[in-house]
Design a protein that fits this description.
Strand content: 5-15%
Radius of gyration: 25 Å
CATH class of the largest domain: Mainly Alpha
Bound molecules: iron/sulfur cluster
Shape: globular
Structural class: alpha+beta
Distance between the termini: 71 Å
Largest sheet: 7 strands, mixed
CATH architecture of the largest domain: Orthogonal Bundle
Length: 397
């Protein structure tokens, strides 16, 4: 038996015996596998499980996902973060409904044509759901292979990728190619972990060059990271009665299409990390005007600024390439002389412990701004970045 067979056989035997019983491993449904793979990107397994089950209950197939409103899909995604994943999957479902009769292609290259499906996801779906002999290389796999080969170069480069693919292709069996991919991922998640690999229990330690060199933690070699930009986000919370003002973010860029408490990003300064920004009396109103396109609150808000407002925060929220230092002010406005659009309570219906929004109707009732009650805040796609503000509102209402 040659080396490649040994690795393959040992790995598959270990996987068969030790793999975790996860809901997406009990299905061969390519749509369900797609959902799980998208959710698992940047999110831990234990977090994903309840979202996965709820999402599939709500959107059991491509048809239900594609026909749902984007608002509805984003709402169901609430709390998982990286909302662009949900939006791309919804676009992909619509593409499949329009262009491919509502079925998932079996072929890797055809899968790559679907919006929201990149190389990794295409490889996972093609190998796991359709038994195709293609690779699915995620961060776990990169780490395991870099250690197995004691590969001395940064793993993100094209040369490293070619080198890894060459070895993985040799090791991947024609039978069970999907199990092979999953076995490597599982090994990376359970044994060959980033900081505490359990090499003694590793089924393929006899083939691991990093282990042989006693230098496992040196691998994988990574490119130095670009420093994350820290941006102060000044946030305006307009409150009237028991409701707060929300507006929709633009369809492009950070947190696209989600709801927000309006705000502005301040120019960078050299202030100490946790300090509050210095905003002069004259600047408050300018910032507010940039944050809120509606002009109907200007007079009342200007009066509040003149009386003085107190800043709260900072709290921190980290995106992949930037970090928000979130500061907020709560501005209590007098009762409205006229009615603004609100989330219509008649659209909420009891379900289990709480309320749920009837998606189709709710979508129609909300456009680009709304006054939401504190209960409504848990029903709409408001980014987790604002959760400290919501907590503050719950304590001070
Ligand atoms: S021996 Fe250690 S470093 Fe090598 S693959 Fe196994 S767990 Fe990872």
């Amino acid at each position: 038996m040659d080396l490649s067979n040994n690795i393959t056989v040992l790995l598959l035997a270990w996987y068969t015996k030790e793999k975790r019983d996860l809901p997406w491993r009990r299905t061969g449904n390519p749509y369900a596998i797609w959902v799980s793979e998208v959710m698992l990107q940047q999110t831990q397994v234990k977090t994903v499980i309840p979202y996965y089950e709820r999402f599939l209950h709500r959107f059991p197939g491509l048809e239900q996902l594609g026909r749902a409103s984007l608002e509805d899909v984003l709402t169901e995604w609430r709390g998982l973060g990286y909302y662009s994943r949900a939006r791309r999957m919804w676009e992909g479902a619509n593409y499949l409904l329009d262009q491919r009769g509502g079925t998932m292609p079996e072929d890797y290259d055809a899968l790559l044509q679907v919006p929201g499906i990149g190389k990794y996801t295409a490889g996972a779906i093609a190998s796991i759901a359709f038994g195709q002999r293609v690779l699915a290389i995620d961060g776990n796999v990169l780490r395991v292979v870099a250690r197995l080969l004691a590969w001395p170069e940064p793993v993100e480069t094209a040369r490293s990728h070619r080198h890894f693919c060459q070895h993985l292709t040799e090791w991947q069996p024609a039978l069970q190619p999907g199990d092979f991919n999953q076995a490597l991922m599982e090994l990376g998640a359970m044994i060959c972990t980033p900081s505490k690999p359990n090499c003694e229990s590793c089924p393929i330690n006899q083939h691991c060059e990093g282990y042989r060199q006693n230098d496992v933690l040196f691998y994988p070699v990574k490119k130095p990271k670009a420093e994350r930009q820290v941006v102060t986000r000044l946030t305006f919370v307009l409150r009237r009665g028991g409701r707060v003002f929300l507006q929709k973010r633009p369809s492009q860029g950070l947190l696209a299409d989600l709801w927000e408490f309006p705000g502005v990003e301040l120019p960078q300064d050299n202030a100490p990390k946790d300090s509050l920004p210095k905003v002069t009396d004259g600047e408050w109103f300018n910032h507010f005007q940039k944050a809120v396109p509606e002009r109907e609150f200007d007079r009342q808000v200007r009066e509040k600024f003149e009386q003085g407002v107190s800043m709260k925060g900072p709290v921190w929220y980290t995106f992949s390439h930037r970090q928000w230092k979130i500061i907020w002010v709560i501005i209590d406005l007098p009762a409205a002389p006229f009615e603004l659009k609100t989330v219509d309570k008649s659209l909420l219906k009891e379900a289990g412990e709480g309320y749920r929004v009837d998606a189709q109707e709710a979508h129609l009732s909300l456009d680009n701004r709304t006054w939401a009650s504190l209960t409504d805040l848990s029903l709409i796609a408001l980014p987790v970045a604002f959760s400290s503000i919501v907590e503050d509102l719950c304590q001070t209402h």
